[in-house]
Structure formats: structure tokens, C-alpha cells
Amino acid sequence: MTIIFHKVHGSGNTFYLHEEIPNMFYNWPLTAQKMCNPSNENGADGLLIISQSTKADAKMRVYNADGSEASMCGNGLRCVARFVLTKLGVTVATIETMKAVLSVQQVEPIFKSIDTYKVEISPVSFKLTSLPMKHKNHKQIVNEVMPEFSLDIHFTAVSVPNPHLIGIVPIHYIEDTQFQEQLATSFNIDNEHFPDGVNVSFVHPVDESSIFVRTFERGVGFTNACGTAMTASALVSATINLVPYGEITVYNPGGFVKCEIEKNENHVHLSLIGNATFFATYSGELTEDGEFIINSVILHEHEINEYKELELQAQKNVNDGWSSNEYL
Ligand SMILES: N[C@@H](CCC[C@H](N)C(=O)O)C(=O)O
């Protein structure tokens, strides 16, 4: 039977996206491992599966490249939003995710005519039990130096609702990724603090309302961007007065997004705004052991090229911000 996968990305965070055919059962964890394999030049960071929902306009499931299922994916949700909104012919909808029904909408292009979507990121919790994270002295960790992790990084642990450890770092930790990789790897194997692993992001300001975020993702490794991590990093940056609340530009190795952090007395509302770009549409056959045999490909070249311009602009803005020296 012929099935279709779209290769998509949000900020260079790449996925295969498939709309499930009712009553057709495939082994999605195995398919994610096979199709997303990083040693395969056509690999991806994850697999997004869209299906029918009884609570919302559609349901999204996300599998990391290692086959593990995650509770949420911000960049992926924008791509799912584009697919669902286009199919329904509407500009606003709701998508069921593992832990919440989230609102999604099409908004003004973030750059030139790039298709742009705004998605809700929720629920948020700073309780260590929500990640889960275990620590003998803490019930939450907000902007704390954790000497057992590092002596010069302030860490925050937050779930949105997937687990994130965010470090506000001096710039040398952005330029040389070795320490981040070592720390994140240690938290994503058998370890005393993160029984389910964690996404680890390092953050450095670019200017008074922008930050740069690099993420080592649980189940994947370094990615160009992680939507939930960027939103969590924007929240942390506003909480500690690194940038004001409101709209924060978040640069990443794959481009940039905007995060809206709205706070009133005891509630925060988080939104992630950015591209949803479709590289290609593949049709083919999926074998029982998760191999996808491609029969035909349609490349969406205009989208690919327009996104390259956004990437160049993002790199320039980051270089300009950092070469002003103020944020080094
Ligand atoms: N890239 C995603 C997050 C995907 C899941 C993550 N690796 C996890 O295991 O929690 C995003 O854009 O949020």
C-alpha cells in the first residue's frame, strides 16, 4: 500500500510527518529509528504522526530519532498545525498532544513569505517531580549554580511539559559545545538525577530582547533547534530579567523564532511563533520492519530557498549582537 511522508522542519529541526490512515497499524518507534537514523543522509530528528482526535481537531504524536515517544514538540507542532489547518481550510484549530489540547493558528510571516504558525506551549511546571528530576536538596531549581554540574552556569529545571534543563552560560560554552554534550550525555544515560532523561539547553543573550539557544535533545543529540527548549529558555530568561517579558526573539543554529511570554499574577501563557517549512513529499511503501521504500519525491524548492535567506539573516543578527561586545 502506498503511504505518504512529508519531510518538514521548524527552525531546521527536521521531521518526517505522516497522517495516519485509520485502521492501518505500523510500528512507529521502529519506523522513527529507521527513517530518522542520523547516519542516513536523509535522516531526521523525529517522526510526527497525525491522527484523528475525539477531543480536538487532530492529534499529534512525536517520536525522537531513537524511537522514544516524547510528550511534546514545539517545532513539530507548527508543522502539524500547517498540515491540519490547510487540510481543514481554517486558520485556527486545536491539536491534542500527550498531556494537553493546544491551540494553533496561522499568523503573519516571520520573514518574507515564509509560512508561519503560532502554537501554545503548555502545561508549564517548575516542580522537579514534573520533569521528573531527583535532587536531595531541592524541590525546584530556578537560576541556581549546581556545583555538581558546573561552577559557572546558572541552571533552571522546567517542564513544558517535556523536561528541560536550561543553563545561562558564558559565551565560550556556546562556541565550544564539548561541555554541553558531555553534561547532556551523562543525563541521558542511566543517572541519579533524570530517570527519563532531559533536554539540555545553553543560553546566551544576543541583545536586550533576544537570546541564542543551543539544545542537546533527549533521544536525538544536538539539533538545529528545539521549540519547547526555546520557549522554556525565553521563560527562564524573562524570569531572571535577562530580557523583558513579552515577545522575545530566540536565535538558534537553524534560524530564529519568536516566543511570547505573558505573565499575570499567578499564571504564565507561552506561545511559540515560527516557520513550518515543507522540504519534500515522498510516497512509497513502509515495510513491517520500518523501512520506507521511496517510489516518488516532490521537492518544494521555493520553500527551501526562501528559508535559506532567513538562516543567513539570523546568523548576521547574532554576529552583529555579539560583535558589539556588550553581551560577551
Ligand atoms: N524538538 C522538539 C522536542 C522533541 C522531543 C524532545 N527531544 C524530548 O524527548 O522531550 C521541540 O521542538 O520541542
From TrEMBL:
Annotated site location: Could be important to modulate the pK values of the two catalytic cysteine residues: 164, 217
GO MF term list: diaminopimelate epimerase activity
Residues the record lists as binding substrate: 13, 64, 74-75, 162, 199, 217-218, 227-228
Organism superkingdom: Bacteria
Keyword Signal among UniProt keywords: no
Pfam families, alphabetized: DAP_epimerase
E.C. code: 5.1.1.7
Pathway membership: Amino-acid biosynthesis; L-lysine biosynthesis via DAP pathway; DL-2,6-diaminopimelate from LL-2,6-diaminopimelate: step 1/1
Record's subcellular location: Cytoplasm
Primary residence: cytoplasm
Family label: Belongs to the diaminopimelate epimerase family.
Complexes and interactors: Homodimer.
Function, in words: Catalyzes the stereoinversion of LL-2,6-diaminopimelate (L,L-DAP) to meso-diaminopimelate (meso-DAP), a precursor of L-lysine and an essential component of the bacterial peptidoglycan.
Protein name: Diaminopimelate epimerase
UniProt organism field: Paenisporosarcina antarctica
